[in-house]
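tool_call predict_complex ligand=2-acetamido-2-deoxy-beta-D-glucopyranose
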Amino acid sequence: MKSSIFTSALAGLAMASGAAAKLKWFGINQSVAEFGSGTYPGVWGTNFYFPSTTSIGTLIGEGYNIFRVAFAMERLVPNELTGSADAAYLANLTTTINYITDNGAYAVLDPHNFGRYYSNIITDTAGFGSFWTTVATAFKDNDKVIFDTNNEYHDMDQTLVLNLNQAAINAIRAAGATSQYIFAEGNSYSGAYVWNTTNENLSGLTDSADKLVYEMHQYLDSDNSGTSDVCVSTTIGVDRVVGATEWLRENGKIGVLGEFAGGANSQCETAIKGLLDHLQANSDVWQGALWWAGGPWWGDYIYSFEPPSGTAYTYYDTLLKTYTP
Ligand SMILES: *[C@@H]1O[C@H](CO)[C@@H](O)[C@H](O)[C@H]1NC(C)=O
Ligand SMILES: *[C@@H]1O[C@H](CO)[C@@H](O)[C@H](O)[C@H]1NC(C)=O
Ligand SMILES: *[C@@H]1O[C@H](CO)[C@@H](O)[C@H](O)[C@H]1NC(C)=O
Ligand SMILES: CC(=O)N[C@H]1CO[C@H](CO)[C@@H](O)[C@@H]1O
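tool_result ok
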């Protein structure tokens, strides 16, 4: 899965002939099992829930082939990092994951924890490894599962972010999960726009199975936070990821844009299209992209991709479908 001059040349030829090479993965984040942050374990149906398999089925039917399923580490492994899994939460999460993979798509296990456990920065790398041993053991026989080490590390020591990622990778492989992809995230909320300055040392991560993918996130609003429906310009998508594209290629790495979104308006639409065309044109290093986000409890959220009436689903589905593999 390493980039090569050969695949670059093929991508170039495909572009020249008007048929851009498709990304391997194109899909939608799935929220709600991580909702109720800070209320642990919380009450199923009140503080948190699980994604709608009906909605996911609709999206798979339209061609989307990857779903990143957010969950809370505190609910899956409630007592301490080295503790065992809560059987009921694991069973419900497994139902969601198996629905996705039984229907032919990839399911990304996303501990939506920002490098924290019960609000404290995780500094116990061995304990973090134990957490991943528990999770990987439960899913090691499903080769369409992808392990995302953690959602959006931020304001953490950079060597700690490196060490936590490496501990996760080592634990996942040692648990016998050797066929699956692993997504490593970075500091500064995994922001693609600062990846080349913040996450330089993550190029040193090693994976015995050689199936490591660097997951970055990118929003198109003024502060990169994904909280506004206003996009800075029609070219802001490309502007913010070109440095990451170069970083991946220079380091011989593969990347996935694990979260992106923009408002339901024409300026954002042009910027989103430019971003996705750029990823496709560089599909030797970019392997996929996932919209943020679907899920049954988003209501009228500006980026909701929940069928049938989510704000972004109704505005963007026609465009995004054209990027599915
Ligand atoms: C799991 O889902 C069932 C419904 O299928 C629900 O009754 C139960 O409370 C859930 N438990 C957890 C911990 O998610
Ligand atoms: C990680 O990156 C930081 C910041 O660039 C650097 O100071 C540190 O030495 C790096 N750590 C390792 C182990 O490479
Ligand atoms: C780093 O990435 C940013 C954003 O894509 C880009 O503007 C900048 O030129 C890059 N810097 C270097 C040194 O590549
Ligand atoms: C940008 C964005 O949508 N962020 C979301 C990340 O996930 C948390 C928890 O699900 C949401 O509250 C944020 O809005």
